[in-house]
Amino acid sequence: MPEPLMTYLVIPLAKIVVILLVLILGAAYLTFFERKVLAYIQIRVGPNRVGPRGWLQAIADALKLLVKEDLTPARSEKFVFLLAPVLIIVPALLVFSVIPFGPTDIWRLTDVNVALLFVLGVSSVGIYGIILGGWSSNNKYSLMGGLRSAAQLISYEVPMGFAVVTVVVMAGSLSLVRIVEVQRELGVWFFLPGIVALFVYFVCGVAETNRNPFDLPEAESELVGGFHTEYSGMKWAFFFLGEYANMIVISSMATVLFFGGWLPPFPNLLAPLWASPVLAWVPPPFWFLAKVAAFIFLYMWFRGTFPRYRFDQLMGLGWKVLLPVSLANLMVVALGVLLVGGPR
Q1: Of 16, 37, 67, which residue constitutes the final position of a domain?
Q2: Structural domain harbouring 62
Q3: Distances in Å between the alpha carbon of 64 and those of 26, 35, 82, 159, 324?
Q4: Same structural domain for residues 57 and 203?
Q5: 181, 175 in Cβ contact below 8 A?
Q6: Which phi and psi (to 5°) does residue 277 adopt?
């Protein structure tokens, strides 16, 4: 096989297949892990019937959804109704084309010099799936869920953008690979000088993924199921596959922007330790996945701990607290970078 064909077609296609399979299987099993975590928090057993200790429950749920009757409301906008789940899942998966899992090309699909803009632009398309799904269902509960999601996105996208710009100012680059490399060169993860930006980013990320305590677009006590009330079968599954994929996106970006990506803990201080024969075999993606898993656990912990915000509290937190805090933090960080001479 010619080398250009192997380099530019076969290897990228193989990476795409691996990434998609891992993401889809991982999102499916996140539902199982979340049910287990919530069960431990609430002193219950959780799923334990299908397979050893319940480990095949996610497979059973997927098979159930595959054979479940797929209904479409008679008076819905059918094309838009079918399109909405696609608009949720496709952007969530597409983002992973630029997220680096390791320092070499084998651990990433591509390195784009404006990868951060790509992530922000593509991930924001998913909101259209929620809005169109709520509107096309011809259901008042679904419409209210879609409108809530639109208002929520507008409220939290701006402070999240300021938090991300804070990292760009410190790193001097929009490349995700370069952002990690700058943290390695400086010997410090950006969460230390950017602790406020990390807090703002993760709170906004929880809100944008419609997770507790910001799950107003699908509040079952108020809107039955919210924007996905009329969905069933695999279309319903796509909404939740997209939700868990977006959780992985937010966690992966937090890892890259604030926690050194694939770098081991304290890479400069503990360099002899990580170079020792005992730990030298640990691949860089292990550290990346461990950090992502920690953020995903926070998502599940929030769901089992915090009560849901009222909608006016949700909007007030975004506009009156997070927006001015993120803007003031950006100004302080920019001044600090200017005083120390800018990123290396």
Answers
A1: 67
A2: 1-67
A3: 18, 17, 20, 40, 47
A4: no
A5: no
A6: -60, -25
Are residues 47 and 173 both part of a single domain? no
Q: How many domains does the chain have?
A: 2
Instruction: Write out the chain's pLDDT in tens, 344 residues.
Output: 566 776 667 777 888 888 888 888 888 888 888 888 989 888 888 888 887 888 888 888 888 888 877 777 777 788 888 888 888 888 888 898 889 888 877 888 888 888 898 998 888 888 888 888 888 888 888 888 887 888 888 888 889 999 999 999 988 888 899 999 888 888 888 888 889 999 999 999 888 888 878 877 776 666 666 777 778 778 888 888 888 888 899 999 999 999 988 888 876 666 666 666 666 677 888 889 999 999 999 988 988 888 888 878 888 888 889 999 999 999 999 888 888 766 55
SS3 annotation, 124-147: CCHHHHHHHHHHHCCCHHHHHHHH
Centre a 10 Å sphere on the Cβ of residue 240 and count the other Cβ atoms it contains: 21
Residue 263: closest CA among 192, 189, 195: 189
Whether residues 57 and 132 fall in one domain: no
Mark whether 125 and 57 lie in a shared domain.
no
Tell me the pTM.
0.89
Same domain, 30 and 165: no
DSSP assignment letter at 322: I
Which residue from 325, 204, 256 is spatially nearest to 333, judged by alpha carbons? 325
Is residue 166 domain-shared with residue 259, that is, in the same domain?
A: yes
User: Is 197 found in the same domain as 172?
Assistant: yes
Query: What does the block give as tokens for 311?
Result: 């909608």
Q: How many CA atoms lie within 13 A of 62 on its CB side?
A: 15
Examine the fold and report which residue of 67, 92, 117 is the final residue of a domain before the chain moves on.
Answer: 67
Q: 240 vs 12, 32, 36, 211, CA distance in Å?
A: 27, 13, 17, 11
Q: Which residues neighbour 51 within 8 Å (Cβ) at sequence distance 6 or greater?
A: 57, 59
Q: Is 90:272 a contact under the CB 8 Å cutoff?
A: no
Cβ contacts of 111 within 8 Å, gap of 6 or more: 98, 100, 105, 175, 176, 177
CA distance 192 to 207: 23
